[in-house]
Design brief:
Elements lengths: L30 E12 L6 E19 L4 E5 L6 H11 L4 E7 L9 H12 L7 H9 L13 E4 L4 E5 L6 E7 L19 H11 L2 H19 L6 H8 L3 E4 L5 E6 L8 H7 L3 E8 L4
Parallel strand pairs: 3-4
Antiparallel strand pairs: 1-2, 2-4, 2-5, 5-6, 7-9, 7-10, 8-9
Length: 293
C-alpha cells in the first residue's frame, strides 16, 4: 500500500467564502455523500477502523450562512445535522453566530454520510479553513467520513482518527443499484467491533491500480460478508440479491442500511428496482461512481 499520509493538507480544496452586504454567504458547492463503503474494518486485529468510501454524487447537501446575533439552523430536506452538532462546531471552530440554512437530499442514519457532509457544508459556509475540516468534524462526531477531501474514495481513511492511512487509485468506474435494508442505524463512534481487513488492502490497491472492476467488486463483497457475519443482520439478502441481479458483487454500509450492487457501466438490468423491492429493500436508486477522472 502507498505510504501513509499523516495529515491531509495536500490537494485541499481552497474555498474562499464571499459575503454580500447583508452578511450572507454564497451558497456552498454541494458536498456529496457516500453510499456505504467498498471496504471497512480493522487495520489489523487491534488496529484502527479504516474504510474506503463509495462516493455517491446523487446525494448531497449545501449550506448558506447569514451573520446574526442568534444561532439558527433550518433545513430544506432531511436534517443532516442537529442544533447540538452545530453549536459544538461553532464553539470549536470559533466562528460567528448566525443563520445556517441547509438544503439537500442526503438521507440520515443509513450510511450515506449525512452528518459529515452537513458539518463540512456549514463550516465552509462560515469560512472555516479547509485544513481544519477533518479534525473539526472528528471533534463534533467522534467518527467521520472523508467527504471533505477532493477525492474521498482515493484514501484508506481511519474514521475514528480523521487520518489517511494510505493513498490509493480511484475505484474502477461502476454503475450502482442501491437500496436500504432494515431500519436506519446511526454510527456509534465508540464501536470498533469490525473484522480485520488488512489482508484485503493490498489486493484492493492492485485492483484499483489496474482498474479491475470484477476484482474490486469481489473484495467489496468479502468485506461486506465479514461485517454481516460479525454484526448481522442474519437475514441480509445481499448475496442472493446480487446473484439474481447478475451483479459483479455488492457493498454495504458497515454501520447502516445502505446496500450497493456493482455493475459494469451500462449492464444493470432494467427491472433492478423491482428486484430490490422483492427482497424488501426500499429507496431504490441508480448512480455512477469511481473512475480516474
Amino acid at each position: 500500500m502507498a505510504s501513509p499520509i499523516p495529515c491531509l493538507r495536500t490537494k485541499a480544496i481552497i474555498l474562499q467564502t464571499i459575503f454580500d452586504n447583508s452578511g450572507a454567504s454564497a451558497e456552498t458547492a454541494p458536498v456529496f455523500g457516500h453510499f456505504g463503503e467498498w471496504l471497512q474494518g480493522r487495520l489489523g486485529p487491534a488496529g484502527p477502523v479504516v474504510l474506503v468510501t463509495m462516493v455517491c454524487p446523487a446525494h448531497g447537501v449545501q449550506a448558506r450562512f447569514t451573520r446574526g446575533r442568534k444561532l439558527t439552523l433550518v433545513h430544506d430536506g432531511p436534517a443532516a445535522i442537529n442544533r447540538e452538532q452545530l453549536e459544538r462546531l461553532i464553539d470549536i471552530a470559533g466562528v460567528e453566530k448566525g443563520r445556517f440554512a441547509l438544503s439537500g437530499n442526503l438521507p440520515v442514519a443509513v450510511g450515506a454520510g449525512a452528518s459529515t457532509a452537513g458539518l463540512v457544508a456549514v463550516a465552509r459556509a462560515a469560512g472555516v479553513a479547509e485544513d481544519r475540516l477533518p479534525s473539526l468534524c472528528l471533534a463534533v462526531e467522534g467518527a467521520t467520513d472523508p467527504l471533505m477531501l477532493p477525492h474521498p474514495d482515493r484514501v484508506v481513511w481511519a474514521s475514528r482518527l480523521a487520518q489517511g492511512k494510505g493513498v490509493i487509485a480511484a475505484p474502477p468506474r461502476a454503475d450502482i443499484i442501491g437500496g436500504y435494508f432494515g431500519a436506519p442505524i446511526r454510527t456509534d463512534a465508540a464501536d470498533d467491533g469490525f473484522a480485520d481487513i488488512s489482508d484485503l488492502l493490498p489486493a484492493w490497491e492492485n485492483a484499483t491500480a489496474q482498474q479491475d472492476l470484477p476484482q474490486a467488486a469481489r473484495l467489496a463483497s468479502v468485506s461486506a460478508d465479514r461485517t454481516t457475519a460479525l454484526r448481522g443482520p442474519r437475514n441480509d439478502p445481499s448475496a442472493a440479491l446480487a446473484q439474481r441481479l447478475g451483479a459483479l458483487g455488492y457493498a454495504r454500509a458497515h454501520t447502516g442500511s445502505a446496500r450497493a450492487f456493482i455493475f459494469t457501466p451500462g449492464s444493470a438490468p432494467d427491472d433492478a428496482e423491482q428486484v430490490l423491492a422483492d427482497y424488501d429493500l426500499t429507496g431504490a436508486m441508480r448512480f455512477k461512481t469511481g473512475g480516474m477522472a
